[in-house]
Amino acid sequence: MLTDESARKRIILEHCRRLNAGDVGGLLDLYAEDVRFEDPVGGGERAGREELRAHFARAVEANAREVPGEPVASQDGVHALVPVSATLDGPAAGPGGVRSIEREYVLMLRVGAGGLIEELRAFWGAAEAGTDDAVRKNAPLEYARRINAGDLDGVMELFTDDIVFEDPVGSPPVRGKAAIRQNIAWAIECKVHEVPGRPVLALDGRTVVAPSVVTTSYPSNMRYQVIGVSEVDGNGLTRSLKAYWGITDVSLPDAPRLTGVAHSLAVTERLIENVRLSEARAGSS
Fold first, then answer.
1. Could you tell me the residue range of the domain that residue 157 belongs to?
2. For residue range 216-242, what is the model confidence (pLDDT) as tens digits?
3. Which of 246, 253, 239, 248 is nearest to 193 (CA)?
4. Which domain of life is it from (predicted)?
């Protein structure tokens, strides 16, 4: 049985709480024996709880403190992500010198059917971005600017011809510019508006991750808390975009406040109506 969205969000926040408490043993209790992890993404994957124990012990020794933002889930039944502002001790000039380092990153966990974390990915890179990194970091910001302006052609210019679009993660990927153009056109028709947060880069030289708040006002008012994970090529074009959000990350500003199953049913009903209208529009074009 897959772990539900709310449970996955609790797990990722509990990860942060136990790290802040310096509880390495408690942290490891959240993880499967054969866990795989990459921190930072691009730094090389490692595996197993003993490797992870050493990794967490180093973080605790450095007085790592995480302040998590708003977590999101995904509709694939396994992922949870959260933006994190962290501080930790690092070396400073002079013998024995220590300075406080601030770091912004996005933590992604994959939770197995038994409720244990099977994979950890931490997206962060060098503090000082070079020219290529600046282009990559700008990609989600420029996407938001153009889609907010209703600039369909401008949005499409940001993608490679073989772009793969998965929104939300857990739905079938949409491949190629022609198919994605219909999706973007529908989003613009729904009066989409995106407010991106601070993008973070991975050390792999291609990935950029950005939290955002997305609203639509047609056919109904909806608000989405989203974390987007994009791969950007050497020309600054996006070749893959995955939008992580779940049913629990959607709110209905014009509806009575609901919780639990009632909320999920209300959101699902509106999402189904959106799909119906989108398919009707595509069929008539």
1. 131-284
2. 999 999 999 999 999 999 899 999 999
3. 253
4. Bacteria
